[in-house]
Amino acid sequence: MVEILTDELVVRLVDLTAGSTHEEEEATIPLAEIAEGDAAAMRVGSIFRWVIGYERSPAGTKKRVSQIVFRDLPRMTEQDFQEGKKWARETMRAFDR
Q1: Strand-pair category, 8-13 with 3-4
Q2: Which of 13, 36, 45, 70 is most buried, most CB within 10 Å of its CB?
Q3: pLDDT tens for residues 15-48?
């Protein structure tokens, strides 16, 4: 998530169904599409999955559906950050040899 505006979100998307591994598209999503519980916890940088597809009823009726699900990941601690920096320094030293 890039930006949270008054009534919409600006997001960058990775199309996992096409095998993409990096952001290729930017989209604007109305806040009305977000569940109330998720909206309260959103922050710039939040990661989510946007599932878009079709749902078939037992009678065979096809309906287009869209669901946005936010990942509930633990926050990075200062210790996590310091360990990451240490790992990066050690990795860079290995390349300097």
Answers
A1: antiparallel
A2: 70
A3: 888 888 888 899 999 999 999 888 888 889 888 9
61-75 pLDDT per residue, tens: 999 999 998 877 777
Strand order in the sheet with 8-13: 3-4, 8-13, 25-30
For residues 37 and 14, give the distance between their C-alpha atoms in angstroms, rounded to a whole number.
Answer: 24
3-class DSSP state of 63: strand
Q: Is there a contact between 68 and 29 (Cβ–Cβ < 8 Å)?
A: yes
